[in-house]
Design goal:
Chain A: It holds the Pfam family RimK. Chain A: Keywords: ATP-binding, Metal-binding, Nucleotide-binding. Chain A: GO terms for molecular function: ATP binding; ligase activity, forming carbon-nitrogen bonds; metal ion binding. Chain A: It comes from Streptomyces termitum. The complex is a heterodimer of chains A (287) and B (60). With 287 residues, chain A is of the alpha+beta class. Chain A folds into 3 domains: 85 residues, Rossmann fold (3-Layer(aba) Sandwich); 66 residues, ATP-grasp fold, A domain (Dna Ligase, domain 1); 94 residues, D-amino Acid Aminotransferase, Chain A, domain 1 (2-Layer Sandwich), CATH 3.30.470. In chain A, 35% of the residues lie in helices and 23% in strands. Chain A has 9 helices and 13 strands. Chain A has a 5-stranded antiparallel sheet. A 4-stranded parallel sheet of chain A has the order 2-1-3-4, with helices on both faces. Chain A has a 4-stranded antiparallel sheet with strand order 5-8-6-7, sandwiched between helices. In chain A, helix 1 packs across helix 9, helix 2 runs antiparallel to helix 3 and helix 3 packs across helix 4. Chain A is globular. Chain B is globular, with a radius of gyration of 12 Å. Chain B is mostly beta strands. Chain B has one domain: Rubrerythrin, domain 2 (Single Sheet), CATH 2.20.28.160. In chain B, the strands form 2 sheets. Chain B has a 3-stranded antiparallel sheet with strand order 3-4-5, with no helix packed on it. In chain B, strand 3 and strand 4 form a beta hairpin. The chains are: A alpha+beta (287), B mainly beta (60).
């Protein structure tokens, strides 16, 4: 199929398990699809783009994903997820603010505009607390601080970081949890699968070596994950939740370009995530 | 069982790497010898280059 004839595009600079399986699922459906590499992409303001009219955003870099989505939308392309959803999900503070505004339970969060203000905010929040970069994933630079001395040291390092954005500090109450969190995959307003992610590290990211196990998809879990995805406007989402002591569920974050290799491996042939995404993308292109 | 299509060489350590028939441009593979991440730059002919380093904003 010539790229010019493609109606669907998959935007990705890295073709990993997820992208490869989505492209294969689209081809299996006989859909004309094009792999669009954002490293060679440019969009001229005010002019149409000569690529696919519907694009799945699978770019691994947040800023490249965000600006690619915004630029393509300005050229009349439908992007999944939307640039607005990527902007919300890619910024931890904006995600938290959206979840709170949408009435979705989420841990108590504070935004401090300087490292000095963060130290005062931590006294208010109490220890242990968690300091997270506003933008970032895979648990990178997420730091658990247990007392004021540790917070002072971490915030001194934060203050020395070169980027002004790094000096805006996102603080969150630590949720006392078991050695696991829960990832729910939401596709087009439906929770389709869930996994526990278990780790000896307090950060239960699969990218940090956490192991996925299938988690019963209860009504409560599904409803909360779907509500979280809707709140940030994501039709494809990986919603991360924690179980508070007592069993109350709280939403930690929503991932707009969700990795699903771990979840897929726990479901085996019971679930084909790539096929569900290909079906959604095809339906969006036809609507 | 997937049929091996071609052998290519790691651009870092020159180890031979067997690539499957279903490889795609931009796909990431790991060198079995030096464990570096490699990117498939082209399929025909097969060409491997060093994959980009992880950047600060990478994730999901």
């Amino acid at each position: 199929m010539s790229p010019a004839a493609a109606r669907l595009g998959v935007l990705a600079s890295r073709v990993r398990f997820e992208e490869k399986n989505i492209l294969t699922a689209l081809e299996r459906r006989g859909v004309a699809c094009e792999h669009v590499d954002p490293r060679t992409l440019s969009v001229r303001a005010g002019e149409p783009w000569d690529g696919p009219r519907t694009v799945l955003n699978r770019e691994v870099g947040h800023y490249r994903a965000l600006y690619a989505a915004a630029a393509l939308e300005s050229a009349g392309v439908t992007v999944l997820n939307s640039a607005a959803a990527t902007a919300l999900c890619g910024d931890k503070w904006q995600t938290s603010a959206a979840l709170v505004a949408g009435g979705v339970p989420t841990p108590e969060t504070l935004l401090a505009l300087t490292p000095e203000a963060a130290l005062k905010s931590l006294e208010e929040l109490g220890y242990p607390a968690v300091i997270k970069p506003l933008v970032g994933s895979w648990g990178r630079l997420v730091t658990r601080v247990t007392d004021r001395a540790m917070a002072e040291a971490v915030l001194e390092h934060v203050a020395a970081l070169p980027s002004p954005q790094s000096h805006v500090v996102y603080l969150q109450r630590e949720v006392a949890k078991a050695d696991r969190d829960i990832r729910v995959l939401v596709v087009d307003g439906r929770a389709v699968g869930a996994t526990y992610r278990r780790s000896e590290d307090w950060r239960t990211n699969v990218a940090r070596g956490a192991v996925s196990e299938r988690c019963p998809l209860t009504g409560e879990l599904s409803a909360l994950a779907v509500a979280a995805a809707e709140t940030v406007g994501a039709c494809l989402a990986g919603v991360d939740l924690l179980e508070e002591p007592g069993g109350r569920l709280t939403v930690l974050e929503v991932n707009d370009r969700v990795e699903f290799r771990g979840l897929q491996s726990t479901y085996g042939t019971d679930l084909d995530v790539a096929e569900l995404i290909a079906a959604l993308l095809t339906a969006k292109a036809e609507s | 069982m997937q049929e091996t299509l071609i052998a290519s060489a790691c651009p870092e350590c020159d180890a031979e790497i067997s690539l499957g028939q279903d490889i795609r441009v931009s796909e990431i593979v790991e060198c079995p010898e030096c464990r570096l991440e490699l990117e498939i730059a082209s399929v025909e002919p097969p060409q491997l280059i060093l994959a980009p380093e992880v950047e600060e904003d990478w994730g999901e």
